[in-house]
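Form 12-C: Joint structure prediction
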Amino acid sequence: MKRTLGTRTEINDSDAPAIAVKNLHKSFHLPTEQAFGLKQTIFNRLRGIKGYKEQKVLKGLNFEIKRGEFLGIVGRNGSGKSTLLKILAGIYYPEKGNVTINGALVPFIELGVGFNPELTGRENVYLNGALLGFSNAEMDKMYDDIWEFAELKEFEDQKLKNYSSGMQVRLAFSIAIRARGDILLLDEVLAVGDAAFQKKCEDYFENLKKNNRTVILVTHSMDNVRRFCTRAILIDDGKIIKDGKPDKVADAYLKLWS
Amino acid sequence: MSIPHVLNRKNRILLKELTKTDFKLRYQGSVLGYLWALLRPLMMFAILYVVFAKLLKIGGDIPHYPVYLLCGTTMWSFFTECTSQGIQAIVNRGDLLRKISFPKYIVVVSATLTAVINMLINVVVIIIFALINGVSPSPTWLLAIPAILELYLLSLGIAFLLGSINVKYRDITSIWDVLIQALFYAVPIIYPITMVASTSEIAAKIILLNPIAQAIQDIRFGLITSTTITSWNYITSPLVIIPIILTLGFLILGATVFRRKSKFFAEEV
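Section 2 - Result
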């Protein structure tokens, strides 16, 4: 199975845009029938069956994100938003085209990556911190702030499996917001916790916006797009069909179903 | 995978934390906890000792045979743990690979480091047993270091190679389980190599061309007794470098395949 590869480069240039995406393509090879396993693969080869189906997810995206922009990415389920985010984050390889990242990028594809139910809250904080690039010493310094923000101090020595799912997300969010970086990638992480905690999260996003951080937010909430974003793009069937003012893009998004 | 990249601060933090987690989780919820790292090989040794040394009366001509046996079983356990954990590491850590971007070799190395820690604890036990058994400390102990390193690099090479294939073809895990059973009997751990040599010198030489056998015999030579038959003192032809070539071959092949395939782990795992 020969695959072509595009490029993803990281640079550090204060004049260049934060992110530049040129002619980005991506497709996945989805196994048809039971193509997992050695036996089936050998049979398929003998029968001349490829054993997978090519699913084109991104079909030539072009855009740039300026420093300080708060960009919303919207689109239906399966339109390619998360794939795009994962390529920006360096998790997936671009198949064709190039992606240039300018500055330190912090991706939040999911909150609480690496959280382990068998470990205590304390151990998970250090583990998750390491995944965000923080050393033990750095975590020691922010440790109390994390628990205070999460409002879960009394549970720190409990195993994570004894936390409610809301509590886990709150803890994860409290760690995540410690991450430094020039560019933040956020995939649907606004909607966590109860109303009081939501308020805290919104304050955090307001703050990001005020401090002119470059943020890319994938979301289905048009309220958040209108409220936080300075620009938005609408992706449908792997292509950008609208790029511009958050209000306009949000309207276009809602029209997809009418 | 250039050198500065390998030593980069963020990757070091990640490697350390993942290894710590692996080690903690291994013994999570067991009453004896970390003690199992010691107890498991000791128990395996006890079984082998009773069966082979006492019931079948093998190894009478080897000085310090019990420690010699313990040394062999410990290093064998190290090899199997390293390879099995390493091969499964990418699949086991699939959640991480799908959600954050980091050099993938870190999960493989962290999985094998747990085995390294276990092995080092057991080397201390071997040394204590050796001293009790009347082995006197000697500078040859240092010879065990390169041999252990070789065994580790071989395991790492196998883990990289088979681990990359295992992402798509999970059969590898099962195949390796069976293969390792067969390999166990191909390496002179429970039987002395002299037993083979007495019937066929050629067979004994072939056995000693296996890098696992060569490394384990070298470790025994260094730590336990200089009467140990090693590849170096038994095979006289230049073929004696075959184990080293095989080790380097697996390492280079493993690293190359891993590098190429790792780009797609996130979407295939």
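Section 3 - Comments
Chain B has one domain: 3-263. The two ends of chain B are 21 Å apart (CA to CA).
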